[in-house]
Design goal:
The chain is of the alpha/beta class and 1476 residues long. The chain has 39 helices and 23 strands.
């Protein structure tokens, strides 16, 4: 970016006309918003001689021409701006392109546009484009700073396709297009003839200059031209889009003709059109930035965005150019090294030759005619009075409503004639066309004419709905569901005014098919195009027909599965106009496969279909005997027709690849006819268009058009009953009244209350659409709702009311927790455990202040259920949502109730295991809004099976449950007789309901497939009631949504609500558990976490929070080779003990995760497993001490060049551990791996840091003693087989051999000499530098299982590398060493799992320990003090990376942890250990 700005300034100084603009130096400041990383190209001595090898550096002059006037009334918000002092698109584009080219050629000139082209002008003032071309050529010739004949020129021509003919006949449109094309050709011909060495950008700026296409005569504004249209009909968006595409297509064909490629120094390239609507979403618009801007500045920024987009497309080959995407800050594209030139048709190897299909058509498809195989074509003996006795021949009138698919747009167009798609071939329309007869044209009308030749109402020929020949085909191209009521009004008026039609007695067949345009636009306004609004509009239209049109049979054809259109769009083996398809139906063709946008489309599509059925199945249109609506579902599951090669077959589509061709119209007519004869419940819903469809005939037994009545079909019950029966005989209260919570009968409960989240608040219980999901149906809530009675609504309060009709506290109706009808239902949607205490306080206030409640005397049942939202967010912040925090928040809530609420039984329902609900979102056959998965519960519903997120949630769920169990079983809430807490465990293992097809049954859930429906709540209420009665210790721990749950009754032996005491249940003693450990995280809660009040200048006063940057050197121990899997070739740097930053401290203990508790903005740690995310972890597997200086130089350079840190001011922490590979290979090359060389390499490394790095604390970790590796290698046959190849110098020698004694001595010498180097004092002269030996590895104790063998859970599958558990232990030991004063550092590590092992800084001396702040000078500390008092051993392994393994031996995840079966005491409490 600095390079770009510098060159921009240089260019401003030397380019033509610069003096006048120097005061406007900030005019292109918008360019600073763009990412520009092109390296400055060397100027070539000789520019390219061919335009097809033209590099940006070759361009000497940049200019532009164009007419940007606006039509009256269009673009009103810009018109005054374009006439203001602001710059025009021409000026900004020239300046921007010149500025970009100046980074390649600083001497580039920008030639100003001809006078008068700035801003917008009226039609009479419009400067003719050809005249502009002449003027710009003249100006360039006169420019003394350029060589007109020899300099390369970049000229952009902005050309507008303007035409008022969109509502006229296609022949007039073609002539108008030809007129515009001729004008453009004249301009390009002139440039081709007069301008040598030119690269011409042709850009369609229509959308910037007019909101409707208006034909302009640039040569003579007063001359209307030879074929000026004078029609004034309303035009549709379809017309506009096809017209615009036709212009583009005509221009492309002109340029592809190579008319302007006959010379090697001239070419014209059509660049993508500029679209103003895309700019509305660009950064900087509508509040993306906070700086205030004038409208002029905003407009100039828009133009800069456009110019950068144009530049980027110049870098793209022809055929691969993309529409401008302004939704994010653009990155300025650079020429590639392989192809450093601007792309032309020739150097792009572009070919637009259409690909032909090998599809073989049947004779039926070629002719589009059909034979009627029916012999009985007679009408009823008398005109029927019931629609359920209607024969085909009884139909007298046919009509249709819909959009362009019914209007017949493009149905009979010739291949590739896209413009002709504007023609509405109503005579061949599938549902109502009447051209010719059935032998040549298959339509529903022509089929019916074979039964009744007197049929009227069908459309013929071409034209709009207003023409006479359209008849009763009142479909309108471009219409959506909201427009259908207006169509119905026109249809009814036409029928009433047609003297041939007797409205009262003639039977009418009306086909309605709508929705394609709704789905094509739904993503722009999902609420407006919601399934609910779609159905509402259908209902409005059908209501009019039902009310005003007697004797009518209405075909309601379900919207097709429009997503299949995406297949045709993405297929490369056709000639479909992809740009036009994107314009016509962006919400279908633009989304990526399997994206949330695509899933949302599929969901909306299905919901359109579902709600269409629901509307009709409500019986709304079956109130009279002479009217019915029948859903015809043949298109519901239609697939894209395929060729014999299995590719999408475009022959079924019009030339725009969106509308039906006559081939599809014929097939749709046949399928619709057959649907009409099929009984309800047996209708075809997946008609495949490529199949041969044989027309069915009415049978003698069933000669009628099928309706629900003559099909003996019963509509599904729209209002199911969710009541229950309670068959308990004894419903009496205690006598005398209960004084103990452990002798509480159901009838004793006077007050019922609940706390929780949206499940308890009742979100979406009775919703039938997503828009209603913000409604809280509290009266239907499982644990607290009190609507109606148990007879029809099953809830816990309704069950209790069977025992005590005066019970109070339950919620009714809908509303929030603050509404009076919510009463004691204080649950809040979205609540998490941290919100529960506030709910408890609100509940306490309500109970104390309500005069109906005797707070001291009334027994209360309070149901608490929380945790779903915590789990749904767990993976985003495991620290915040940890099991410890969850349990603490539950405890705070229960403490409030325990302390302040007398006479209460708290029913604590355990957190539900949400993972089974994933099936609703991963099963593609289930009609759930999968696009909402991330919004609803991202940590559970997104990601792959067995992903880390799911593993975290699974472990957290169990940890939540265990934490709450331990809390309650501690006896904390059983301190007096009038209060207890009982855990209800039935949601531990929920079972998802499955339908007969084996897929989830979503009837148990609301429309979001997450919250239960009333059906689900009824089941939950029954399970909760039964759980309340069950004894503690015998409570159900599973829940089946589909189970036939019978309500239990209190028995004579067990008449009370179950508590631990009346269940004779003894809480287990609180002891350390043998439960599997969930992760290797730690808990740290230090009071001293703040940084120093000012940034310290001395390393001896450095607090942990002062550390800003972290780095590490080393081998595969520091790259964490294989730490997460059996794949030992992977470096899991994010888990590295000294530099890894994956997860949080609560889930994985690493040094950065500890330090992030003190400074969340720590920088430099590694994440993941790729080198790109390694941060300042420069360790390499296989590294030895001699590689450390190179790593040190690399680290210094990384830090010096990083823009994220302040190299001089930020404090840095660097950890170094190396030597394992040196020891393992010592016997192979004793000179290379000698002690002297080892120490020399360490000194060289530290010297680099000491000389070049300011403000640094270096951890030098003492090399472990590798002889312990022999015991680990011998622990299993698998280990023994690989060990000798990994570390031969330690593992090959015989026991007690001289070779083994020598390598052990060398190991100790490595430790001693390294310590001598560190304590030598040579690194103590600088106040901001310290290197400290951390000795925790010196005497590490090898962890053993109870059987005396090494505990391999600290190791990877190869028995050499460490596991995540081993890394966590290393990180803890290192951290503690850093805080321990020199001379008092722990020189061993006792490998026992304890989350609380981490130390906190000493409040009196809260610094990282150095020799000086520990009270030592370097001369005071002799080596004797640090000699080990127990035999060295050095545990765990290590080192390897050797020649064959290529990585240092480390402990890594071993796989399964083995439970210990022995109880240890004292220091052997959790594991056996042995020192070596």
């Amino acid at each position: 970016m600095k390079l770009l700005l510098g060159l921009l300034f240089l260019w401003l100084l030397i380019s033509e006309g610069n003096a006048d603009h120097l005061e406007e130096h900030g005019k292109l400041k918008t360019l600073r918003s763009f990412q520009f990383s092109c390296e400055q190209a060397m100027l070539h001595e000789t520019p390219s001689s061919s335009v097809h090898a033209l590099r940006p550096a070759d361009i000497k002059t940049v200019t532009a021409i164009g007419s940007l006037q606006r039509t009256p009334g269009s673009g009103a918000h810009h018109e005054h701006l374009l006439q203001s002092t602001g710059k025009s698109l021409l000026e900004v584009s020239v300046e921007t392109l010149a500025a970009l080219i100046s980074s390649f050629n600083p001497s580039v000139l920008h030639q100003s546009s001809p006078p008068g082209t700035k801003g917008a002008t009226s039609d009479t003032q419009a400067i003719d484009l050809l005249h502009q071309a002449e003027e710009i050529v003249k100006l360039m010739k006169e420019n003394q700073m350029m060589d007109f004949q020899n300099d390369w020129k970049l000229i952009t021509v902005f050309f507008s396709a303007e035409n008022p003919c969109s509502s006229c006949a296609s022949t007039q449109l073609k002539n108008c297009i030809l007129d515009n094309l001729e004008k453009l050709k004249a301009v390009l011909d002139f440039l081709y003839k007069m301008v040598p060495k030119a690269f011409i950008n042709l850009v369609d700026s229509t959308e910037l200059t007019t909101s409707s296409l208006v034909c302009q005569d640039y040569n003579n504004a007063s001359n209307a031209g030879r074929n000026q249209c004078n029609c004034v009909s309303e035009q549709s968006t379809l017309d506009d889009n096809i017209l615009r595409w036709s212009y583009q297509d005509a221009w492309e064909k002109l340029l592809e003709s190579e008319r302007y490629d006959q010379k090697d120094d001239f070419t014209v390239i059509l660049q993508p059109s500029l679209q103003e609507r895309n700019l509305l979403l660009r950064p900087g618009r509508d509040g993306f930035v906070t700086t205030s801007k004038t409208q002029v500045e905003t407009l100039e920024e828009d133009y800069t965005f456009m110019a950068v987009g144009l530049w980027n497309n110049m870098m793209e080959p022809v055929g691969q150019k993309q529409p401008y995407d302004f939704t994010k800050i653009l990155q300025v594209r650079c020429p590639s090294q392989e192809k450093p030139y601007l792309f032309t048709y020739r150097n792009s190897n572009y070919s637009s030759s259409p690909e032909t299909s090998n599809t073989k058509e049947t004779s039926q498809e070629r002719i589009y005619g059909t034979n009627i195989p029916c012999f009985d074509r007679s009408p009823s003996d008398t005109v029927p009075v019931s629609v359920h006795n209607l024969k085909p021949a009884d139909i007298r009138v046919i009509a249709a409503l819909g959009d362009s698919l019914t209007a017949g747009n493009g149905a009979a167009s010739k291949p590739h004639d896209v413009l002709d798609v504007l023609t509405q071939y109503r005579g061949v329309s599938w549902s109502v066309g009447g051209n010719e007869n059935i032998s040549t044209v298959t339509t529903l009308a022509n089929i019916l004419r074979e039964f009744n030749p007197s049929l009227i109402g069908y459309s013929t020929g071409t034209g709009k709905e207003t023409t006479d020949n359209a008849a009763l085909n009142q479909a309108v191209a471009g219409d959506r569901a909201e427009d259908v009521p207006a169509q119905v009004r026109r249809l009814v008026d036409r029928m009433k005014n047609d003297t041939r039609i007797n409205l009262k007695t003639d039977w009418k067949l009306i086909t309605l098919f709508i929705g394609g345009n709704d789905l094509c636009k739904f993503c722009n306004n999902p609420v407006h195009y919601s399934p609910e609004n779609y159905t509402y509009n259908l209902q409005t239209a059908l209501d009019i027909l039902h009310r005003e049109v007697p004797r009518a049979f209405v075909n309601l054809v379900t919207i097709l599965s429009i997503a299949s259109l995406w297949e045709l769009y993405t297929s490369e083996k056709n000639t479909c106009p992809k740009l036009l398809m994107r314009v016509l139906c962006p919400c279908v063709v633009n989304p990526q496969d399997n994206s949330n946008e695509f899933k949302k489309l599929v969901y909306f599509n299905r919901r359109y279909q579902e709600r269409t059925h629901q509307l009709v199945e409500s019986g709304r249109y079956d109130t009279t005997d002479d009217f019915t609506v029948v859903v015809q579902p043949f298109l519901t599951n239609v697939n894209m027709p395929k060729t014999q090669e299995g590719l999408p077959d475009s022959s079924y589509f019009a030339p725009d690849c969106f509308h039906f061709s006559q081939k599809s119209h014929s097939q749709a007519a046949r399928a619709l006819w057959n649907n009409m004869l099929e009984p309800l419940g047996e209708k075809t819903d997946s008609q495949q268009m490529e199949d041969e469809i044989v027309l069915k005939c009415p049978s003698k037994a069933e000669p009628f058009l099928r309706t629900y009545k003559n099909s003996n079909y019963t509509y599904p019950n729209q209002t199911p009953n969710y009541g229950s029966q309670l068959l308990c005989k004894d419903k009496s209260p205690s006598s005398p009244p209960a004084t103990s919570v452990h002798s509480l009968k159901p009838a004793d409960v006077k007050i019922i209350a609940a706390l929780g989240d949206s499940l308890t608040a009742g979100t979406g219980i009775a919703s039938d659409n997503l828009l209603d999901l913000d409604t809280e149906y509290r009266g239907l809530s499982w644990s607290i709702g009190g609507d109606a009675s148990l007879e029809n609504v099953t809830t816990l309060p309704n069950i209790f009311r069977e025992f005590n009709v005066t019970i109070m506290g339950y919620s009714t109706g809908t509303g929030s927790e603050n509404d009076s009808n919510a009463f004691l239902n204080q649950a809040v949607p979205g609540a998490q455990a941290e919100h529960l205490p506030a709910q408890a306080r609100n509940l306490l206030r309500l109970m104390k202040t309500d005069p109906r409640i005797d707070f001291s005397a009334d027994w209360k049942l309070i149901t608490v259920h929380i945790g779903g939202n915590d789990l749904c967010n767990y993976c985003k912040d495991p620290d915040h949502y940890s099991a410890v925090n969850f349990t603490r928040r539950i405890q705070e809530t229960l403490d409030i109730l325990h302390k302040q609420v007398p006479k209460a039984l708290v029913s604590l329902v355990e957190v539900m295991d949400l993972l089974p609900l994933r099936q609703l979102f991963v099963d593609t056959q289930v009609q759930c809004p999968t696009y909402l998965a991330d919004y609803l519960c991202s940590c559970v519903f997104t990601g792959e099976e067995n992903s880390p997120n799911l593993t975290m949630v699974r472990e957290a769920t169990r940890a939540y449950q265990l934490g709450v169990q331990r809390l309650v079983e501690s006896g904390r809430y059983d301190t007096h007789e009038n209060f207890t807490v009982v855990i209800q465990t039935f949601l531990q293992n929920p079972k998802i309901p499955l339908g007969q097809d084996g897929h989830p049954d979503i009837s148990y859930f609301s429309p979001d497939c997450f919250h239960p429906s009333q059906k689900g709540h009824s089941q939950l209420a029954k399970a909760l009631w039964n759980a309340v009665l069950q004894p503690v210790g015998q409570k159900a721990d599973s829940f089946d949504f589909m189970a036939d749950i019978v309500l239990d009754c209190p028995t004579q032996n067990k008449p009370f609500l179950g508590t631990y005491k009346n269940s004779n249940y003894t809480y287990p003693p609180v002891e350390p558990t043998n439960e599997p450990i969930e992760n290797w995280g730690s808990d740290l809660s230090c009071s001293e976490q703040a940084p120093s009040s000012r940034v310290p200048t001395s390393v001896h006063e450095l607090k942990p929070a002062d550390i800003k940057v972290i780095g590490a050197l080393g081998d595969s121990l520091t790259t964490a080779a294989g730490a997460e899997a059996t794949d030992l070739q992977t470096d899991w740097r994010g888990l590295s003990w000294s530099i890894g930053g994956d997860g949080t401290l609560e889930t994985q203990t690493t040094l950065p995760n500890i330090l992030k508790k003190f400074n969340p903005n720590l920088f430099g740690f590694s994440t993941g497993s790729s080198k790109e995310t390694a941060g300042f972890n420069v360790a390499e597997r296989g590294a030895t001490a001699r590689n450390m200086s190179a790593q040190a130089r690399e680290l210094v350079q990384l830090m010096r060049s990083s823009s994220k840190i302040n190299f001089k001011e930020d404090w840095k922490l660097i950890t170094v551990l190396v030597g394992g590979n040196d020891l393992c290979q010592y016997c192979l090359d004793k000179e290379t791996y000698s002690v002297q060389k080892y120490v020399k390499h360490l000194r060289d490394t530290l010297d680099i840091f000491y000389k070049e790095l300011p403000r640094v604390f270096v951890n030098m970790v003492e090399i472990l003693e590798i002889s312990g590796l022999r015991q680990i290698a011998a622990s299993s046959l698998g280990c023994a087989l690989t060990a000798k190849n990994v570390c031969p110098c330690f593992l090959n020698p015989e026991e007690n051999s001289s070779e083994l004694q020598e390598i052990k001595r060398v190991n100790r010498d490595f430790q001693a000499e390294a310590l001598q180097l560190i304590n030598s004092g040579q690194y103590e002269e600088r106040e901001d530098f310290a290197v400290v030996m951390q000795p925790f590895f010196r005497n590490t104790l090898l962890p053993l299982e109870s059987n005396g063998k090494p505990d391999l859970s600290f190791f990877a599958a190869d028995c050499f590398h460490f596991s995540a558990r081993g890394y966590a232990e290393m990180a803890m030991a290192l951290w503690n060493n850093m805080l321990e004063p020199a001379g008092e550092k722990q020189t061993y590590n006792n490998f026992t799992h304890d989350r609380s092992k981490l130390k906190c800084p000493n409040p009196e001396k809260p610094f990282l320990s150095t020799l000086r702040n520990s009270g030592f000078r370097h001369s005071d500390l002799n080596l004797e003090k640090t000699e080990p008092s127990v035999p060295y051993w050095a545990v765990i392994v290590a080192a390897v990376a050797g020649v064959l393994a290529g990585s240092l031996l480390i402990w890594v995840v071993s796989g399964r942890r083995v439970k210990r079966h022995q109880h240890e005491t004292g220091t052997e409490r959790n594991s056996k250990t042995t020192s070596l």
